[in-house]
Specification:
The chain is an all-alpha fold and 424 residues long. Helices cover 72% and strands 2% of the residues. A two-stranded antiparallel sheet has the order 1-2. Strand 1 and strand 2 form a beta hairpin.
Length: 424
């Protein structure tokens, strides 16, 4: 049991760590919204405080004889805190002035990252001193560590979305979303970019999903276990990890000369489908493999054919997992800029027109024209200053996020519907 003196020391140490964690988290959030508000002297003072607190904590570390936290974890976290404090003391301008970055916004990513590290470590230090039972301490500390591992990325994601809304909502209006840019009137519209992005995503999904699901059905239902599954799995993993610019270069060298000789919507759809295909194969294979064999055997025992069993039993049961994999792929290809800027897009192009009220009602020629896209519009505005100001760039980013969330919402609806029908 701890004496009263030791309990007081432990409570003080725990309180100091939690206060430092709260201060660090507040500073990191403040820096996210006000990047240039803090000076180098402030960071030096914070660094000195971190070094002093760590040194005092190390001094009192051995004063509690009845209870000691895990030594290796304690020493590692203390060393990291000392390193962060030394960086703040001797390099106070790290992240304050970054003259090589272009644009009006200079995020202090270095300092924000360091303060998040301090927050994470100090919470860990405080938890180690909160429980007196060492075994119970480790178990609960790991539990809260995993919770923090979820909450911190979630908080960063929410911060990005909220910051984009704050910066981009001021330019969102009906004209911005539904019209083209009018240079003479000085009005910016991104409707062609929205339609171009939708066309690229829908076309890539139409090309990739049937092929991916078909390949997964062959691998799980028809192919025998052996080398063919290993080859397909390794190939899919290699394709998924291939940098997007490599896909763009392949399309520029191989597809573009063989289609029209210039950038086209069709070439962009094919390349994005090639990027989406490996994840679709991998997730569909796992989804089909997770369907219990009893379902297949029961259907076959009742006299159903293998194809009827696959179509009416296996595929409906695996739709939720397949939709999840496709959504992950769409989230990646929706924001790709490097491949489509080489083979599909051009600035200030009109919206693709596929349908009409007169024969032939569907225009194939739209597939063989250049399109605009939201990721490329962002790049052209920020890097080249073409198509609007920085506020229009934030507005374009907000529309792109909303567009991706709409696809996620549609996928979640489909997944929930099939989960309710599945019943297991």
């Amino acid at each position: 049991m701890l004496s009263e003196h030791e309990k007081a020391i432990k409570n003080v140490m725990m309180g100091v760590w939690f206060i430092l964690a709260s201060l660090s988290l507040a500073i990191s959030i403040f820096l996210g919204f006000n990047p240039g508000a803090l000076t180098g002297q402030f960071f030096s003072a914070i660094g000195g405080a971190i070094v002093i607190v760590t040194a005092l904590n190390s001094f009192f570390f051995r004063r509690i004889e009845s209870y000691q936290p895990p030594l290796r974890g304690y020493l590692l976290s203390s060393l990291l805190l000392l390193l962060v404090g030394i960086v703040f003391v001797f390099f106070p301008d790290q992240g304050v002035a970054l003259p090589n970055l272009e644009g009006d916004i200079t995020p202090k990513l270095v300092n924000i990252s360091l303060f998040l590290i301090v927050t994470f470590i100090t919470i860990w230090e405080g938890l180690m001193f909160y429980w007196e039972n060492p075994a119970h301490n480790r178990e609960l500390a790991v539990k809260y560590f995993t919770w923090l591992s979820v909450l911190i990325p979630l908080g960063v994601l929410i911060f990005f979305i909220v910051y984009t809304i704050m910066e981009g909502s001021s330019v969102i209006d009906w004209y911005f979303i539904t019209q083209e840019t009018d240079i003479l009137r000085g009005k910016v519209g991104i409707f062609p970019a929205i339609m171009g992005t939708l066309s690229l995503i829908v076309g890539a999904t139409v090309f990739a999903v049937p092929l991916g699901v078909g390949a997964a059905v062959f691998l799980t239902e028809y192919a025998k276990r052996g080398w063919i599954k290993q080859i397909v799995g390794v190939t899919a993993d290699c394709l998924w990890s291939t940098p997007s610019i490599v896909f763009g270069l392949f399309g520029f060298v191989f597809l573009v000369p063989r289609i029209t000789g210039h950038s086209t919507l069709l070439a962009g759809q094919i390349i994005l489908a090639a990027m989406l295909l490996p994840l679709t194969i991998a997730t569909s294979t796992e989804a089909l493999s997770s369907v219990p064999d009893e379902f297949r055997n029961g259907s076959l025992a009742l006299g159903a054919s293998r194809w009827w069993t696959i179509r009416r039993v296996v595929l409906p049961s695996s739709v939720p997992s397949i939709v999840t994999g496709v959504l992950l792929g769409i989230g990646r290809i929706a924001g790709e800029t490097a491949p489509i800027m080489l083979i599909a897009v051009a600035s200030q192009t009109s919206a693709p027109n596929f349908f009409s009220l007169s024969p032939p009602y569907f225009h194939i020629s739209a597939l063989f024209r250049e399109v605009d896209a939201l990721p490329y519009r962002l790049y052209s505005i920020y890097k080249a200053g073409v198509g609007g100001s920085l506020q229009e760039a934030w507005g374009t980013a907000l529309v792109l996020i909303v567009l991706v969330l709409m696809f996620y919402g549609l996928g979640i609806t489909v997944r929930s519907y099939y989960r309710r029908r599945r019943g297991w």
